[in-house]
Design goal:
- There is one protein chain.
- This protein has 3 domains: about 5-70, Roll (SH3 type barrels), CATH 2.30.30; about 80-130; about 140-310, Rossmann fold.
- About 25% of the residues are buried.
- The protein is α+β, with helices and mostly antiparallel strands and about 325 residues long.
- Strands 1-4-3-2-5-6 form a 6-stranded antiparallel β-sheet, with no helix packed on it. The chain has a 5-stranded antiparallel β-sheet with strand order 9-8-7-10-11, with no helix packed on it.
- The chain is built from 5 helices and 16 strands.
């Protein structure tokens, strides 16, 4: 008897599909790891599967197998991303599953490389030195972050804090978002951003929304879960898309609530993704064209947790 268990299921074994095409990725004493044409993997075991070898292609139905020539498998090998690389082993992720392979001695695989897998499922060649995101997976739209102006009725007159604080932030935001570019003739660049710090409930978000309403600016409400993607490089790309969208939709305020959750201190103790995200954010700040009518406003309860480069003059 042959049983098949798709990796998509946990608590039930799906029925065997008559005429389903499979390719063997590995065979350990009759316990097979199979590949389906939709990119999913499946596990199978049975006495009639012991003789199958990696790379074999067959049809499965009613517990019977029909051997087919390797060329029966449609062209196009799978790819994978190296998520860990050591001296003797590598860990590779492909089609949502993780595999372990021996490290090759000549030109060892490196972390985050995209590699091509042969018919037997083994990594055979490097396609790119960076991960390649899955096509069609990202439906992120910067437009979805904008709070419609008609939905933002916040008024600075309702802010219960210091009047001098409101005047100061309004003056800075007015200059940064003004289309008249009042500082150009003076040779002075307007600020690129403001940081509001203080305990929860002190009106940081309220003040930012009030400034947007007062200056009739597009308000992009950006939170960590909104832009963080599951693929390497996806978060940075989303961040670039936000800046580009705002640059063509000014005057605009990019509001990063609890910015310390995204841009903490860089260092060896942090994950590589954190360091890369902070670097991308700094690059976008430095690349901002002056007088483009885009202002960044961020809030935090922990200003000491931010990377020092974010707070230097000019940023």
């Amino acid at each position: 008897m042959t049983t098949v268990h798709s990796s998509e299921f946990e608590d039930e074994v799906p029925e065997v599909v008559e005429g389903q095409l499979y390719r063997v990725l590995s065979n350990v004493d009759g316990s097979l790891l199979l590949e389906l044409r939709n990119g999913q993997t499946a596990h199978a075991n049975g006495s009639n599967l012991v003789e199958l070898n990696p790379g074999d292609v067959f049809l499965l139905g009613n517990g019977q197998i029909e051997h087919l020539p390797p060329e029966s498998w449609p062209a196009g090998d799978r790819t994978g991303t190296v998520v860990w690389a050591g001296g003797s082993d590598i860990v590779l992720k492909s089609a949502g599953a993780t595999y372990n392979f021996p490290q090759r001695t000549d030109e060892p695989f490196k972390k985050w490389q995209t590699v091509r897998l042969g018919p037997d499922g083994q990594p055979v060649a490097v396609i790119a030195d960076e991960p390649i995101e899955e096509l069609g997976d990202d439906d992120f739209d910067p437009e979805s972050l904008i709070i419609k102006k008609e939905d933002n009725s916040t008024s600075l007159n309702d802010f219960g804090g210091s009047a001098s604080l409101v005047r100061r932030t309004l003056d800075l935001a007015t200059v940064a978002l003004s289309s008249d570019e009042p500082l150009r003739t003076m040779g002075v660049n307007p600020i690129k951003g403001m940081l509001f710090s203080g305990p929860s409930g002190t009106g940081k978000t309220f003040l930012a929304r009030g400034l947007a309403a007062k200056l009739d600016a597009s308000f992009y409400n950006i939170g960590g879960p909104t832009i963080v993607g599951k693929f390497v490089g996806q978060t940075e790309r989303r961040l670039r898309e936000i800046f580009e969208h705002a640059n063509g939709n000014g005057p605009a305020i990019l509001f990063f609530d609890e910015i310390d959750s995204l841009y903490t201190q860089r260092g060896e103790q942090n994950h590589e993704a954190t360091n890369r995200l902070v670097g991308q954010f700094l690059s976008l700040l430095d690349g901002f064209v002056a007088y483009d009518r885009v202002l960044i406003i961020a809030t935090t309860n922990l200003p000491g947790a931010l990377d020092g480069a974010l707070l230097r003059p000019g940023r």
